[in-house]
Amino acid sequence: MSARMATAMVVGLSSVLFAAVPAVAAPKPKPAPDVTVDVTAERFILPTDGWTSVDAVARNAGTAPAPGVRLVFTLPAPFQIGQIASSSAWTCDFVTPTVTCDLVDDLAPGASAPAVNLTGYLYGAPVGEPIEAVATVSTTGRETVLDNNTGRKQFQIVGKGTLRGVIWNDLDADGVREAGEPLVTNVGLGFWSLDDDDQYGFSNSYNGTYSLDVPAKRYVGRVQLYKSSWRFTTPNVGADDSVDSDIVQVSETSYTSNGETAVLSVVAGEITTVDIGVVATSTTP
Q1: Residues 254, 143: contact at Cβ < 8 Å?
Q2: Which residue in 95, 153, 212, 264 is a FRET match for 46, CA 20 to 30 A apart?
Q3: Which of 11-25, 44-58, 60-74, 115-129 has the lowest mean pLDDT?
């Protein structure tokens, strides 16, 4: 037998051997539940005597229904839980400081269960001490992913500072508050936190002066005027900030003018002054 013929026979035999091995398809993953939980709170920078509302929402991110879903939700001391709210989709038991809720029905793939809500109140919490709400969700179904079963939300405890000022009628419209210029009693003012979803202020029935003790964080003050009665005076006139107006007009509609302060960083134990000067556009006092 020639060398060429022997080589051809080996090559042919190899082809037959390789062709005889069938291809094996990768096994398809079995449908499985995957429960997760998110913990959220709109207000999370709080004073020592503050309060907050916290939601825990369980979701099935898997491909099969999740049976026997249980949510264990803790809002620890120094919070005291004043209210627990949930829908009839859950049955809940409470043993301070933890609420344990069982979902009545299976949780469908891609679906979220109704939120379980805790309202917590602080009584003399230490400033600077972080507090963490924790929720853990589980299912009696076989999960393939377990590292997303816990959600957390951290709260920061801060001291209070004071927002203080006057709202006055700038009779000569020069942007400076002078002796004899009267206070205005029908203009309101609100302060919105830039660091969480929090708001302080008063309506349009105040007496022209205000003083608000608020958590130490950043705010923007906002004022809305009815153009039929008032317009904003010229802001930030001169070097003496104690006698000028701190509101800048930022927008208007057919009926209102809207003004804002610069960003205000309130410091615990300190006073931040915001004065508002307005000019009458009618005879309305």
Answers
A1: no
A2: 95
A3: 11-25
